[in-house]
Amino acid sequence: MNPWIGVALALSALILGGLLLDWQGVIFATTGIIFWLLLQMSRLMRVMKVAGSAPLGSVANAVMLNSKLHAGMTLVDLIKLAGSLGIKQAPETYQWRDATGDAVEVVLKKGKLAEWRLLRATPDGQAS
User: Fold this and answer.
1) Closest Cα partner for 106 from 95, 90, 91, 121?
2) Which of 40, 46, 114, 119 is most buried per CB count within 10 Å?
3) What is the dihedral of CA 69, 71, 73, 77, to 10 degrees?
4) pLDDT > 90: what percent of the chain?
5) What 3-state class would DSSP assign to 115?
C-alpha cells in the first residue's frame, strides 16, 4: 500500500473522530492508529527473527524462490519468502544461494523488486 494512503486514512480517522465524538473520538482514533502500527512492527519483528536465525544468503531452493518472485515486492516480502537475509552484492542488489549452488539475484529500485534472475550452478559448483 502506498504510505500516503495510510497517512490520509489516519488523518481522516482523527478528523472524523474529532467531529463525531469530540476529544474522545480523537483518542479512539489515536488508539486505533497505534494498534495498527504495533501490528506492523510485530510482523516485521517475526520476519527478522526467522531471518536472523538462518545463515546469511541461504535459501532452501533457489528455483522455487525464483518462481515466487514478482515485480513490486518489498525487501521484507523477499526476506519472508527466502527465510534469511540476502548477501548484498551491490547497492540495492542482493543474492540468495541454495545447497546445490543455484542462486537468485534481485535488484531493488526504491525499495521494490524491479528485476531478478536465476543463476544456475555449473558442473564445477559455481553459479553462472
Assistant:
1) 95
2) 119
3) 0
4) 83
5) strand
Count of CB atoms situated within 10 Å of the CB of 65: 22
**Where are the chain's structural domains?**
1-53, 55-119
C-alpha cell at 48: 527478522
| Residue 105, φ and ψ in degrees, nearest 5 | -115, 125
**CA pair distance 103, 61, nearest whole angstrom:** 9
At 3, the amino acid letter reads P
In this structure, CATH architecture of domain 55-119: Roll (3.10)
Check whether 127 has a pLDDT greater than 70: no
How many Å apart are CA 80 and CA 110, to the nearest integer?
A: 19
Triad 44, 45, 50: Cα angle to 5°: 100
pLDDT at 106: 96
